[in-house]
Amino acid sequence: MRRLVLALLALVFFVFGEEQAKFVQTPYEAPFKVVVEFYFDEPEKIRPALLWVSNIIYVLSNEPYNFIPGEDIDIVVIIHGTEIVTLVKKNREKYKDIWERIEGMTMYGVKFKVCKMAAEQLYGYTEKDFPPFVELVPSAITELLHWQQKGYALLIPRIMEMKKTREEIR
To answer: Do 71 and 33 contact (CB within 8 A), yes or no?
Structure first.
């Protein structure tokens, strides 16, 4: 009986004693097609949202995938919230870091499309207010549907405000 109890305890320890998460290398396949919706209540939320896009490029263009951005990775960003103001020429210096990040992403084939309806009706902007790395499209909503119908996965970054430090919540 004692041996049975010890055997059961050893089995429990073996099964549960060294339990930890397991890393799984998901077998992502090319082409990887994503349409990303930016629609934020504060212009500055575009900064962390751009990190979502960078993450896709980083993960897929490195080992073990080695996808080629612009060929194997196709990302279209549709912009139609307050973040529109970060992309107009007159605000270039104010949002210089955003411009630099977006210009860098366009070199990886990421396309940035601004809703013409929102730009004009909400902010009074026209095509001449935007830099050449931005394309204006008739409507963000129809554009999002268009890309989804072409087989692109929809990604909507949720940007939340951290009210505590990482150390406080750990």
So the answer is: no
> To the nearest whole percent, how much of the chain has pLDDT over 70?
90
Rounded distance, CA 76 to CA 2, Å? 66
pLDDT tens readout for residues 76-122 = 999 999 999 999 999 999 999 999 999 999 999 999 999 999 999 99
Q: What's the pTM? A: 0.86
Q: Domains in the chain and their CATH numbers?
A: 28-159 (3.40.1260.10)
User: Which uninterrupted H or E stretch holds 51?
Assistant: helix 46-61
- DSSP of 62-77: STTT---BTTTEEEEE
Comparing CA positions, the residue from 77, 83, 78, 88 lying closest to residue 140 is 78
- The alpha carbon of 154 is separated from its chain's Cα centroid by a whole number of angstroms, namely 10
**Which amino acid belongs to residue 154?**
L
Q: Where would I find the beta strands (DSSP E) of the chain?
A: 32-38, 73-79, 111-115, 134-137, 153-155
Of 17-21, 31-35, 148-152, the one with minimum mean pLDDT is 17-21
Alpha carbon distances (Å) from 165 to 157, 158, 162, 168: 21, 18, 7, 5
